[in-house]
Specification:
Helices cover about 35% and strands about 15% of the residues. The strands form 3 sheets. Strands 4-10-9-8-7-5-6 form a 7-stranded mixed sheet, with helices on both faces. Strands 1-2-3-13 form a 4-stranded mixed sheet. Helix 7 packs parallel to helix 8 and helix 11 packs parallel to helix 13. Bound molecules: pyridoxal-5'-phosphate.
């Protein structure tokens, strides 16, 4: 990279989640191409992307068949105002409804944050148009540790204090509850008792807020960016019962867990429980193009029928919602997941990688817990396995740096919970082979061994 190139990168580009002081005068690596699970930089170095971009490149990099679809759609119809309908967007809505398996309507936008904002607005308007007269349900309950996006409403729902420093106050009406967190649960509780305890906390919160003020509860089936936290099996079905009991809509944020990531097409399938509203992004088009969706069950959509003058319709528009190119690309990406059974591969290779990680790192003094489902794994690092004190940045950053130097890019729950950013994140493309899984395991293991030397 020439000096001019490095200056252009460091002088003008503002990268997310980056303290630029360390980049001054440096020449950050520029990535130039990618194929399968690997990204190549300008010097020809290859990196196994063990976090699939931002856990979104489910079908892997470099799929020319997706590029072909995008090119053709750009030639045929490159844009259409979302108040009109194109063939690809109708087809995509049909496809999602077919995959979900129940009658639904799908509203499209361009990012996970927008999909969640949309869900919140739909939930509020739904209650306004269907609740008892005088009842104004507006509160959104969400969970600590969960990430739901960066826009004001989605940030307010996010339960990660470090993501909010300097940006609050957010909009009012957002309330948080603790999620199940088996690793840090009271040791006397069984997994089931802990699941019950957390569901009970949700119920108590609804009661104490006043159920008639609570519009919706949003949750990821499995907390991803907050540290890969898998709920006990009884928790999600209990949440469903509680939401039903108090007339609270249940929203599943499937932005990460959708489209094969957890080893099934959708994450919630693991718990045989459906929500009222679902949000999708990331894996929807495997990161090939920005696209997101908010799917609502028909009983919700029906409350939006009415005379135009009654203002019962959803009064939101997104310039890039229902984009024909994005829709065509999403359709192709979903087709690849189905044709190549990538959900099954995620389950098979994910289980294999989890076993390998347990074998090679399970007894490491810094490893508190290795957990996950399908092709998403977290390694919680602690100073001491008894006290579970989180491992500090000074020990974690070198592990991540060591992995990158040896060709594997990992994630971490950075800037989430104060003092608890101690989980390494692994969520490669779903096309990962066992050989590539071995490479990840060997590289992380070697880095962890060097960390204690
Ligand atoms: C669970 C979850 N929901 C929502 C979002 C927000 O998506 P976006 O970054 O596309 O706005 C993310 C992003 O990481 C996410 O992980």
């Amino acid at each position: 990279m020439t000096k001019a190139e490095s200056d252009a990168l460091t002088d003008h580009l503002w990268r997310p989640m980056t303290q630029h002081q360390g980049l001054r005068g440096a020449a950050p690596n520029k990535m130039v191409s990618a194929k399968g699970c690997f990204i190549t930089d300008q010097n020809g170095n290859r990196f196994l992307d063990a976090i699939a971009g931002l856990w979104c490149v489910n079908v892997g990099y470099g799929r020319t068949e997706i590029a072909d679809v995008a090119r053709q759609q750009m030639i045929d119809l490159n844009y259409l105002a979302p108040i009109m309908s194109s063939e690809p967007v109708i087809e995509l809505a049909e496809k999602l409804q077919q995959l979900l398996g129940f009658q639904s309507h799908i509203y499209f936008s361009a990012s996970g944050s927008e999909a969640n904002e949309t869900a919140f607005k739909i939930a509020r308007q739904y209650h306004l148009q269907s609740g008892k007269s005088g009842e104004r349900r507006f509160k959104i309950i969400s969970r600590y540790r969960a990430y739901h996006g960066n826009t004001m409403g989605a940030m307010a729902a996010t339960g990660q204090a470090e993501r909010k420093i300097g940006y609050e106050p957010g909009p009012p009406g957002f309330v948080h509850v603790m999620p199940p967190y088996p690793y840090r649960a009271h040791p006397k509780l069984t997994a089931e008792e802990h699941g019950e305890e957390c569901a009970h906390l949700l119920e108590e919160t609804i009661i104490h807020e006043g159920a008639e003020t609570v519009a919706a509860f949003i949750m990821e089936p499995l907390i991803s960016g907050g540290g890969v936290i898998v709920p006990p099996d009884n928790y999600i079905p209990r949440v469903r019962e509680i939401c039903d009991r108090y007339g609270v809509l249940l929203i599943f944020d499937e932005v990460v867990s959708g489209f094969g990531r957890l080893g099934k097409m959708f994450g919630y399938e693991h718990w045989n429980t459906e929500a009222d509203i679902f949000t999708f992004a990331k894996g929807l088009a495997s990161g090939y193009i920005p696209v997101a969706a908010t799917a609502v069950k028909e009983h919700i959509f029906e409350k939006f029928y009415g005379d135009p003058a009654d203002m019962q319709h959803f009064r939101q528009i997104n310039t890039y919602g229902g984009h024909p190119v994005a829709s065509a690309v999403a359709l192709k990406a979903i087709q690849i997941v189905e044709d190549e059974r990538l959900d099954e591969n995620a389950s098979k290779v994910g289980t294999y990688m989890m076993d390998q990680l347990q074998q090679s790192l399970g007894d490491h003094p810094y490893v508190g817990e290795i957990r996950g489902k399908g092709m998403i794994m977290g390694i919680e690092l602690v100073e001491d396995r008894e006290t579970k004190i989180p491992l500090g940045d000074d020990k974690i950053m070198p592990v991540i740096g060591d992995c990158v130097r040896n060709g594997v890019i990992l994630g971490r729950n950075s800037n989430t919970i104060p003092g608890r950013c101690n989980v390494l994140l692994i969520a490669p493309p779903l096309v990962l082979s066992e050989k590539e899984a071995d490479q990840i395991v060997e590289t992380v293991t070697a880095a962890m061994r060097r960390a204690i030397d």
